[in-house]
Amino acid sequence: MKRIFSGVKPTGHLTLGNYLGAMRRWAEVDQHRSDALFSVVDLHALTVEHDPARVRRLSRQAATLLLASGLDPDRCTLFVQSHVDEHARLSYLLECTATDGEMRRMIQYKEKSAQARESGQSVRLSLLTYPALMAADILAYRTEEVPVGEDQTQHVELTRDLAVRFNQRYGHTFTVPRVTHPPVAARVMDLQDPASKMGKSNAVGAGIVYLLDDADVVRKKVMRAVTDSGHEVAYDREERPGVTNLLEILAACTGRDPKELAGAYASYGTLKKDVADAVVEVLRPVRERHAELAADPAYLDEVLRKGADRARGMARPTVDAAYRAIGLLPA
Ligand code: TYM
Hints:
The protein is 54% helix and 7% strand. By secondary structure, it is mostly helical. β4, α7 and β5 form a beta-alpha-beta unit. A three-stranded parallel sheet has the order 1-2-3. It has two domains: 2-181 and 297-326, Rossmann fold (3-Layer(aba) Sandwich); 215-291, Tyrosyl-Transfer RNA Synthetase (Orthogonal Bundle). The model has no long low-confidence stretch (mean pLDDT 96). Residues 5-9, 17-18, 21-22, 41, 44, 134, 137-138, 146, 148-149, 151-152, 155, 186-188, 197-199 line the site of ligand 1.
């Protein structure tokens, strides 16, 4: 069976972008057709200014939401990254494989380091080396496919480059993974600023639908979404980014084609109403299940403990092989 790995970073409350771009497909498709691992990648949350108690809280919440969105611990491996030492062990070897130049070229590093500097914060070294840790997450499991939203493509391409380079220099050790995206909503945009990604770490929440928002809040956010000048409902990312984003969200929620949907609407108002209804319906079962699961923290602990045991067993042989291949004496 195909090996799949993906992860979500507990830096903020999970959003509709995370759900439509990644989590929903993990639950509905990926866990059924593959040997899949999904991780709350908590070490990545330490690359920016953080509050320890908040990271702990968000890590549990993210794991609970992954279960609530349909991940089944009998079908896939769900675990917390820091519970499996192999990620950090392998990350160092990949830092010794990557170059400073290729790390600095990463768009996310450029954007986030600029944001930190603008707000007078220092830039953590781990923000620069983050892609080596992400590559370790993927390569430790000999992953073949990495299902993510569009914003992660560059990181997965770098992972491929590192795998190929390591294999060429030190002998075949890693599987070279490929990235996959959902057919629609691979990049859900902020409802107030359709030029930017709907991101959980964004400071202002008015354009971000969180998975745990009440139905009323979701409706309000969608109804207030920024649309474009003109009245025609057209699918055009360049000229009509606001409306196109709404069409993509509706298409993802209803399983329809966004271009076809565009033809079915005469006004922005009716489109917004249908988007609001569709999002509320898609999120309702997730919120309900989240509430049930949150009432039983011992169950989550057990799932994560078993998941980490299983993940460790899978990663260990590959990471040990990488240590030997690169020239380190076996312990
Ligand atoms: P993160 O936590 O930012 O996002 C988790 C997943 O959600 C997708 N996503 C989106 N998709 C569509 N539209 C959006 N607005 C949107 N926002 C987020 C992301 O593409 C991602 O799939 N570096 C990763 C976490 C990570 C990882 C990994 C992923 C660490 N190691 C190994 C895959 C494999 C991240 O920050 O995702």
